[in-house]
From TrEMBL:
Domain (Response regulatory): residue spans on this chain: 3-119
Keyword Acetylation among record annotations: no
Protein known as: Response regulator
4-aspartylphosphate carried by residues: D54
Gene3D superfamilies (UniProt xref): 3.40.50.2300
Domain of life according to the entry: Bacteria
Record InterPro entries: CheY-like_superfamily, NreC/VraR/RcsB-like_REC, Sig_transdc_resp-reg_C-effctor, Sig_transdc_resp-reg_receiver, Tscrpt_reg_LuxR_C, WalR-like
Organism: Streptosporangium jomthongense
């Protein structure tokens, strides 16, 4: 038996979803809540298999509930249910530990299938959504620490720029043609999203200071 907890601030929606799910022999609705506070208090005590969470709640977000519930009771699978297709909310929900994200316009049979899917430990994210999520994570990581995107050679040149060396001097130090160094510097500026060599030098100086601490 799949034990389900429903969270939605509209009682009519909760009753409709509860009636739909309870019409199935293998699903039991063990509790309901209309607010984030009530959900966070009740779900860990009832330990359902699946929590169906509305994204928008009067006192917070279903995503916050998901994060709290997953932290307190990792065995509960969270299925986000929302009226709006929102990429930011989807991203945040998955980062909070949600196993799936479906729109309220979903057919009843599909919602039942979604509950069974996440209850079995699977994810409801389709390949396109997963690819988008991974691209966004990579983009965030690069923006957080752009130096991670540099090759070993580019990092070495970054350090030498920080020492105040010209392209010619860097070429002599690294046994590279001056034109090759110039190309490396252009790539550096592009990857670091900078326009001037002085910005690169300032970054290199900050990095050296951090290492020396």
């Amino acid at each position: 038996m799949i034990r389900v907890f429903l969270v939605d601030d509209h009682e009519v929606v909760r009753r409709g979803v509860a009636a739909l799910l309870e019409s199935e022999d293998d699903i039991e609705v063990v509790g309901e809540a209309g607010t984030a506070e009530s959900a966070i208090a009740r779900i860990p005590a009832l330990r359902p298999d699946v929590a169906v969470l509305d994204v928008r709640l009067p006192d917070g977000s279903g995503i916050d509930v998901c994060r709290e519930v997953r932290s307190a009771t990792p065995g509960v699978a969270c299925l986000m249910l929302t009226s709006f297709a929102d990429d930011d909310a989807l991203f945040t929900a998955v980062m909070a530990g949600a196993s799936g994200y479906v729109l309220k316009q979903i057919h009843g049979s599909d919602l039942i299938g979604a509950v069974r899917t996440v209850a079995s430990g699977q994810s409801l994210l389709d390949p396109q959504t997963t690819a988008s999520m991974l691209a966004r994570l990579r983009d965030q990581a690069t923006r957080k620490d752009p130096v991670e995107a540099l090759s070993e050679q580019e990092r070495h040149i970054l350090e030498l720029i920080g020492e105040g060396l010209t392209n010619r001097q860097i070429g002599e130090r690294m046994f590279l043609a001056e034109k090759t160094v110039k190309n490396y510097v252009s790539n550096l500026l592009s990857k670091l999203n900078m326009q001037r060599r002085t910005q690169v030098a300032a970054l290199a100086a900050r990095m050296k200071t951090d290492r020396d601490r």
